[in-house]
Fold these 2 entries.
Entry 1:
Amino acid sequence: MNERKKLLITDIQNLLNSYDAVKTTSINPSLLEFMDENTLISIIDSLLAQKENHFKADEEWLEKFKKYDN
């Protein structure tokens, strides 16, 4: 497995571990090594989009809460 694929797999693992409510995730690289770099990048893009959507939902909730505080 080349170095770039190793980094992409590490990035996926780090993104999965960046969620507060999720236990630490460890990915066996051999499970993802059959995927090409574009597929791994697509997984990263998907995880980032999910994280952004989650952040926006939290932000909207906080804004509603702030309205009730006044």
Note: The two ends are 56 Å apart (CA to CA).
Entry 2:
Amino acid sequence: MRKTTTVKHREPLIHIAKRDDMAAWQAWLIRLAAILIGFFVMSAVLTALASTSSGKDLSFGDILERLSRSVFGRLFEGKFSQLWKFLQETAVLLCLSLAVTPAFKMKFWNCGAEGQALFGGLAAMFCMINLGGKVPEPVLVPLVILASIIGGAVWGVIPAIFHAYYRTNETLFTLMMNYVATQIVAYYVYANGQGSNVINPVSTGALPVIGGQQYLLNVLIVTLLTVLTYVYLRFSKQGYEVSVVGESQNTARYIGINVKKVIIRTMIISGALCGIAGMLLVAGKDHSINTATVGGQGFTAIMVSWLGQFNPYIIAAMAALVSFLQIGAAGAADAYFLNSAYADVMVGVVVLCLVACEFFIRYTVKFRHSKKGGALA
């Protein structure tokens, strides 16, 4: 009689399972811990580097004070210029992050916020230069805003049409559109700057100053856009269609949603919001334009939108955090004669900690139990 052998399957030492029982407050507690860990690690590194470069025995508290002062300035002395700079940077980053959010919810990977904002800013600059002095100021400012919205929307809808009708890759298409927009702006600056790379600031058509503060209107506009975006995505029929198309285009078609129409409409909105961000930089801040006007914030906005989980209010908090790290670390690095790239490194480490913590939020690590019933952990 033939013997049969039984093969014992050994349970793996480590088993990763999807977690589905974590409360929302626990998840946010983990994210907050990750942010603090990254922040304090990079602050400790900055303390060591600054002490070495300056030759002074700096404490951790000195570094934290320098970070805060670089962002908020001397509030207790009635000096708010640094605070307004922080709010301006946060507002522009938030506006760009809000712009890519509807497209991302639809799983249309719009990586062209940089170019769409540049093109919107170019449209605003064109109106300020060519209509300034010919059109009354109360009429010119709305024209500048409208032109920037149309410019950004046009630059956003082009890849949407090609994707909807010809199934082109939206990531590559929108990325390439960034380079096209940059070169168009470069040519425009060269043509209008008499052969130089600079256009002198133009005052006509600029956004009005409220209460003696240049950036107040910018902040108010983006605050309003944050509320409107939340309402649009959460409570409107169009926002519901965006979510359904993002979940499954086949399901959307089955229930009667015109997927092509939703893609094109959403990218018009996304591009228009980017155009407003460009207008805030051109008509609300610099009163000029060049290829570095947006300064890479269109790409940073992709990260901020994802970290905010496509919720406009959480995105606002993430935009403020990233702006705080960028401005604070840059100011501290400059004060202690360190490389300016340290600010990018600090932001990268904190964001990396935040991204890494998502693993522990979504998955749990289980260890193999011994025969006696004890865990190997």
Note: Residues 111 and 174 are 5 Å apart (CA to CA).
